[in-house]
Specification:
By secondary structure, the chain is mainly alpha-helical. 73% of the residues lie in helices and 0% in strands. The longest helix has 35 residues, at 50-84. The chain starts with 25 loop residues before the first helix and ends with a helix. Belongs to the UPF0718 family.
Length: 336
């Protein structure tokens, strides 16, 4: 009987590592944009006439200049609270009954001045400390929309319509509570993947603080610039009669700005200035833009999927989108 001998591969005979796949990143995107500008410089020059370019520049600079101080202050204050206030604080102050914990957690969103980028890790930390998921999710939705920085920015952006501040606060508060109660009633444990690690683990307070500030400034500032560019483009390029036609239909205008809020993914501390620039649309449609944006957008969906799992995000985001639109229309009809 011959016993086969198994030969082990020597390091030299081991299979070579596969080369990393090429990925389309920010450098490639910038290169592609520059090539497109060179190739299509003729049509671009025709579109951006002197009058249109002046309008575009005016709107862009106005939106960024007005929004930037609120963005910076909100990011810094958010980092202070996220790093130096222990997550266990929220578990201690919330009621033990989930049905009562939801509105209390929603109201607690006022103590986290920051954009939605900061609310996701804080909500995850709350769950790890024993807070019921319904309350933590209500906090996640409310914090970017009802904090003092956002409400102050809204008042500055709509100086002639102070009722917009009240309407945004009420609509966002109600939408967050409704989503918390809906999750408590219909949500399933298997849909929600608990966050696996705490925020800022293994880092000192100072390093965690500056890391949080750098992250939020880069991400939120980038989306602010994109939002300002989109608002300026709508003003300068899209014919006025097109915007008037969309804005003139109450149903289409609300849905159009709700979808626009999802696509633009603007930081909640700056979205009021973009909404104020869309003067063709009704206050109710712009209220929908302000309520939907901090609760459902592309970057927030990606963060929720990465933190709580894809099964959660694909169910929670569409439900939040629908609830935010319905409540915005009801509150806008009553208060605006």
């Amino acid at each position: 009987m011959v016993i086969p001998v198994t030969q082990t591969e020597s390091p030299a005979e081991a299979p070579e590592k596969r080369p990393q796949k090429w990925r389309f990143g920010s450098v490639e995107a910038l290169a592609a944009l520059l090539v497109a500008v060179v190739v299509f410089q003729g049509p671009i020059s025709d579109v951006l006439s002197r009058a249109a370019l002046a309008t575009w520049t005016t709107v862009f600079v106005a939106v960024v200049t007005q929004a930037m101080p609120f963005l910076v202050f909100g990011v810094v204050l958010s980092a202070v609270i996220a790093v130096f206030v222990p997550p266990s604080f929220f578990a201690r102050v919330l009621p033990s009954k989930p049905v009562l914990a939801v509105p209390v957690a929603t109201s607690a969103g006022m103590v986290l001045p920051g954009c939605e980028c900061a609310s996701v890790p804080v909500a995850g930390a709350m769950m790890r400390r024993g807070v019921t998921p319904a309350a933590a999710l209500a906090f996640l939705l409310a914090a970017p929309a009802i904090n003092p920085i956002v409400l102050t920015a809204t008042a500055v952006a709509f100086p002639g319509n102070p009722e917009m501040v009240v309407a945004r606060f009420v609509a966002s508060l109600l939408a967050a509570c409704v989503m918390g109660w809906l999750w408590m009633r219909l949500g399933r444990t298997e849909w929600l993947k608990p966050p696996s690690r705490p925020s800022f683990e293994g880092q000192g307070k100072a390093a965690a603080f500056w890391g949080s500030v750098r992250h939020d400034i880069v991400h939120a500032g980038g989306f602010l610039v994109l939002g300002a560019m989109a608002a300026a483009t709508l003003k300068a390029v899209v014919p006025e009669e097109w915007l008037s036609a969309v804005a003139g239909n109450p149903v289409i205008s609300v849905l159009a700005l709700a979808v626009l809020a999802v696509l633009l993914s603007i930081c909640s501390e700056a979205d009021a200035f973009v909404a104020a620039s869309l003067s063709q649309f009704s206050l109710t449609a712009r209220l929908t833009f302000l309520v939907v944006g901090p609760m459902v957008d592309l970057k927030l969906f990606a963060m929720q999927a990465g933190t709580f799992g894809r099964s959660f995000a694909i169910r929670f985001a569409p439900a939040t989108f629908a609830v935010a639109i319905i409540i915005s229309v009801i509150v806008g009809t009553v208060l605006l």
